[in-house]
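User: I'm curious whether this sequence folds into something compact or stays loose and floppy. Could you predict its structure so I can see for myself?
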Amino acid sequence: MPATPVTPVKPSPAPRTKRTAAAPRPEPQLAKPLRTFEDICVQIRNEVREGRLKPGDRLPAERDLAEQFGVSRSAVREALRSLEVAGVIACQRGTSGGAFIRQGDPRIITQAVQDMVLLGRISTDSVTETRILLMNDALRLASVRATGIDLDAIERDIDLVEQLTRSGNLENRSSYIINFYSLVARATHNEVMVMLIDSLSEIVRPLLDRLGPDPRTDVIGVRRRILKHLRAHDADAAIAELTRHLERLSRHLRAKEKALAKAGDAG
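Assistant: Here's the prediction. I'll summarize afterward.
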């Protein structure tokens, strides 16, 4: 059936007004054209997005990809390197090797942000602020969605950290100290929330190790109060408790960073 033609509507004449000098229009910003290898990356990502390529699928050989895209093998090779660095594919050597579509790996996000922190492109304050915002949302979701199994797992983790603290086993305590945040994230039953919170926790871990903060004595009490609020489905109280704790931790880390920087300058 042919489409019904749309009759354009003529606009009513605008009232006459006194002419004023029109402001110069800004020049349109033209999009930067993609380089050949970038265009290949986009097309392969689209294939994954639309389900024609799935995790574990093997890409054609470089020569076949070059013929398929009508480009040089060097452009294909550069595209594959870019996709490998981004974590989209894994390149394996040998007779059974090749380029394979990877399973999603949240560690790629962690490494990228860690590198930005290391290079000074992202501040510790920004990481802390984002962590607080995400944990606030996680606590709100967990207060509604957490099961008894989720909350019992959080309680066992608190008991373990308390035991390690009392025994003076600070090395193992350091390994478990951020597990609390991961368990709260899992209690949201939102896989993206788990991925983001785990990534931020792993970014904070080396910072804590580098600065060597003294174990805070209030951690166990804070976490037990948060758990109590979660069991009571009181998200606001849990959020207020954790926010105060993370803000105190942030101030402590800033003070340690300044002290270390001052000691380095003096040396």
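Summary: The radius of gyration is 27 Å. The CA atoms of residues 106 and 195 lie 6 Å apart.
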